Amino acid sequence: MNTNFDLNGLVRANVAKLRPYSSARDEFQSTGTEMVFLDANENPFQTDVNRYPDPQQRTLKAELAKIKGVAQENILLGNGSDEVLDLLFRAFCEPKTDNAVTLPPTYGMYAVLANINNVENREILLTADFELNISNILRAIDKNSKIIFLCSPNNPTGNSFLEEGVLEILENFSGLVVIDEAYIDFSKQESWLKKLRSYPNLVITQTLSKAYGMAGIRLGICYASAEIISILNKIKPPYNVNELSQRRALERVNNMEAVKQEVADILKERARLFEALLDVDYIQKIYDSDANFILIKVDDATKRYSELLEMGIVIRNRTSQPLCENTLRLTVGTALENDRLITALKAIN
Ligand SMILES: *Cc1c(COP(=O)(O)O)cnc(C)c1O
User: Fold this and answer.
1) What does pTM read for this prediction?
2) Could you tell me which residues carry N6-(pyridoxal phosphate)lysine (predicted)?
3) Domain range for residue 266?
4) 80 in ligand 1 pocket by Cβ < 6 Å?
5) 88, 109, 204: which to mutate for ligand 1, most atoms within 8 A of CB?
6) Which of 17, 196, 292, 346 has the most CB atoms lying inside 10 A of its own CB?
7) Any ligand 1 atom below 6 A from CB of 53
C-alpha cells in the first residue's frame, strides 16, 4: 500500500473540471426493443459499418474482463497502447511544469510522447545488467514527477525487472507507476494485474499487437483503478476504437487456444534461435529474453545490420541506445524465417 497517493492532486486541473463530449451513443440506455437510430446523422443504408462503433467497447471489454480476471470498470481500450500512453500524459502531466520518469534503454515512444506533450522526460539509466536503478530513480523524483514508465519485459533488452525493485517503486512513488506489459505473454513472470487492487497508483498497459497477432488493428489496453479509468475516459476521443478493430479483437480473444499455441511455438523457436546464435563467432553476447525477441551484442552492429539487409532480412539496430552499443534486436519469426536468419548470420561471417 502506498499511503501518500492522492489521485485528485495528480490529475491536471483542466482535466479534473472537464465536461467530456457526450456522443450520440452515450446518451441513452437501450430498451432492448427494436430501436430506430435517428440520433447520429449516420447514413441509414446498410454497409455493415454505417453505424458508429460502441464508444465504450462493452462487448470486447466484457470478454477481456473475463479472460484477465478484472472488472470492466478497470479497463480502458485505445487505438494501440500508444494512444493509451498518450492519454496518460495528457491526463496527468501539465506541460512545461510536470515531468515523467523513463528508464533507458527502453521503448522509444515514452520519450516521443513526453516531447509531443511538452513534458520533461527525466531519463534514469538502467543498471549495467538492465535492472532498475532504484536509488537513482528515487533521487530523481520530485513533487512534479507524475508518472514513471516501467517496461517489463523491457524492449529492447528483453528482461523483466526483479519484483522487489518494482515493489519498491510502487511503495515509494506517489505518482502513477505505469508498467508496460506489451510482452507479458512471453514472460516467465506473471502479470502485475493481480496487484491492481493493492496499489492505487498502479497502471498496467497491454496490447493485442504482439502475442495476439493483431498489430494491424491497433488495440491497446489499460488496466487501472476505476477512478483512474474514469479520468482517462473523460479525455479519450469518443470513437477511438473503430468497429472493425472491435470485431476482429473479439474474434481473437474468443479463440485463446490459438493465441496460446502461437505463443508456445514462438517460445520454442526463441530457444532454438538462442542455441543457433551461440555458433556465430562475431556474436559476443546473447541476452536472456523474456519476450519474443533476442538482443545480441556483435562486433559491429551497423555493419552486420547492413549485411543482413542486403540478404533481405530486416532486424533492428539498437547501437545508438544507451548501454546498447553494438547490439541488434532480433524478433523471433516462424521456423522458416528463423532458419533464413540463422543461415544469413552464418553466411556473413
Ligand atoms: C510494441 C510495443 C507496444 C505496442 O504498442 P501498440 O501501440 O499497442 O502497438 C507497447 N509497448 C512496448 C514496449 C512495445 O514494444
Assistant:
1) 0.97
2) 210
3) 257-347
4) yes
5) 109
6) 292
7) no
